[in-house]
Amino acid sequence: MIKISSTLFVTFVVLLFIFAVVITLIPSLMILNKIINILAIGLLLVGIVLIVSLIIDRFKESKNEGDEYKKY
Q1: How many C-beta atoms surround the C-beta of residue 55 within 10 A?
Q2: What span, in angstroms and rounded, lies between the C-alpha atoms of 26 and 46?
Q3: pTM above 0.85, yes or no
């Protein structure tokens, strides 16, 4: 889940950057603004899912560690 979310997050960021540069260079393509808005919403949702999955993964990992830190 973390790998998929991370990949989607980076993909959305790269696509947002590319579309923003294209709109800046070619103002007649303002129709891409709708795509940028959809990508921004997707980026927000994927970011939330990524944060939650990282917290859950860390919580599971801390349960497995137990009192291992006391050995050192």
Answers
A1: 10
A2: 29
A3: no
Residues with pLDDT less than 50, the chain: none
In this structure, what are the phi and psi dihedrals at residue 31, rounded to the nearest 5 degrees? -65, -20
Which residue is associated with the tokens 């129709």? 31
Q: Confirm if 36 and 19 have CB atoms less than 8 A apart.
A: yes
Q: Would you say 48 and 1 are in contact if contact means Cβ atoms under 8 Å apart?
A: no
* pLDDT the model gives residue 67: 61
Task: Give whole-number Cα distances, 45 to 2, 22, 30, 33, 63, in Å.
Answer: 14, 24, 24, 19, 27
In whole angstroms, how far apart are CA 71 and each of 36, 63, 67?
Answer: 51, 16, 8
pLDDT at 19: 92
